[in-house]
Specification:
Four Helix Bundle (Hemerythrin (Met), subunit A); 57% helix; 193 residues; globular; single chain; mainly alpha
Length: 193
């Protein structure tokens, strides 16, 4: 599967989980212990809002703090849809143009950047579904593509402090293996109220 399709499909997976969040669930805990449901969605919307300017060649310094803070407003679902649609369109045009993206660690090929974004959307789709009692089964084709890409980067991510330690003893299916590799317990459930 080409990276443009992969990215767009992972954005759709995440957005579908956002659309399923109940009104009273926005402050619920998630597998990402530092984030509530709203904070998790805000994080991914932030990534999506950063994508168009970065793919267009702007630097982090040029974007500045314009995308800091609450990006969800009064309608988190609409904010997630709009940001996801804009990100998918910019990735598609950037990949077609062979763009270079200026990230915090240096210049990166847009294809690698799109893979980073796809992985984040897919794993956070599971986080969000697990937190809200939603559909936690991810698209197997997307899991396989992200897992193949992530296998070569797991230790880099862990060494940079971007993911928690690998969860040992998780079930052997591909989705559970990917979740465990990203530091998630595939059996995570929200704490009792």
């Amino acid at each position: 599967m080409d990276v443009t399709t992969l990215h767009a499909r992972t954005v759709a997976e995440f957005t579908a989980r956002v659309e399923a969040v109940g009104d009273g669930q926005w402050e619920d805990p998630t597998p990402c212990t530092e984030w509530s449901v709203r904070a998790l969605v805000n994080h991914v919307v932030g990534e999506d809002r950063w994508t168009p300017p970065l793919v267009a060649g702007r630097t982090i310094a040029e974007v500045g703090d314009s995308l800091d803070g609450d990006l969800l407003g009064d309608d988190p679902v609409a904010a997630a849809r709009a940001a996801g649609d804009a990100a998918a369109a910019s990735v598609a045009s950037g990949v077609a143009a062979g763009a270079t993206v200026h990230l915090s660690y240096g210049d990166e090929d847009v294809v690698e950047y799109a893979m980073q974004l796809a992985a984040d959307h897919l794993v956070h789709a599971w986080d969000l579904a697990a937190a809200t009692g939603g559909a936690t089964e991810l698209d197997g084709e997307l899991v396989a593509a992200v897992a193949a890409w992530f296998a070569e980067r797991e230790e880099l991510y862990r060494g940079a402090g971007m993911i928690a330690p690998r969860v040992e003893g998780a079930a052997g299916d591909p989705q559970s293996a990917l979740l465990a590799a990203t530091g998630r317990d595939p059996a995570w459930n929200p704490p009792e109220a």
